Amino acid sequence: MRRLDRRRIRTPAWLSICMPVPIHRSRPLYLLLAAATVALGLATRRFRGVLPHAIAAYAGDVLWAAMVYLLLAAVWNRAAIRLVTAGAAIFSLALELSQLYHAPWISAVRQTRLGGLVLGFGFLWSDLACYAAGIALAASLDLAIRLRSSPRPAVAR
């Protein structure tokens, strides 16, 4: 019986999301990407008047969810993309559902600038779609970084 030479088998890039391949993300890179996402999100709030309505209305939520993904990817720098995606989705959903809770103390926290940016003010179904888009965008970026930095197999001649 012939032994299978594993070095000659090449896995398609799109399948790497599903396979348990060791990942090691660069924490400084992902923290830098998260900081850039925050800056871009704050810029969409500051320049809301000059942006098209759809971007002004939804870009902040999309970027917020992307930032959550990037921060989780920095913390869980060896986790699979699907695990980071699930964690970001659960966290974002929990935070959006928390906006249905209106105790005086949490409303006071939401009235501060930082509390309003992080916790939001009211539950909106459209926010869930924005969160899904932001997480998908960040996961796609994560996959692109991973594929670009993965070692290329040597071509047999």
What does this structure look like?
The protein is built from 6 helices and no strands. The chain starts with 26 loop residues before the first helix and ends in an 8-residue tail after the last helix. The longest helix is centred in the last third of the chain and has 25 residues, at 125-149. Helix 1 packs antiparallel against helix 2 and helix 3 runs antiparallel to helix 6. The protein has helices at residues 27-46, 53-75, 81-98, 104-110, 113-119, 125-149. It is mostly helical.
Kindly summarize this structure in a few lines.
The protein has 157 residues and is mainly alpha-helical. It has helices spanning 27-46, 53-75, 81-98, 104-110, 113-119, 125-149.
Mean pLDDT, nearest integer? 83
Structural class of the helix and strand makeup? Answer: mainly alpha
Query: What is the overall silhouette?
Result: globular
Helix content: 55-70%
- One letter per element, helices H and strands E, the order comes to HHHHHH
Query: Total strand count, please?
Result: 0
Structure keywords:
about 160 residues; 6 helices
List the helices and strands and how they pair.
Elements (H helix, E strand, L loop, with lengths): L26 H20 L6 H23 L5 H18 L5 H7 L2 H7 L5 H25 L8
Helix pairs in contact: 1-2, 2-3, 2-6, 3-6
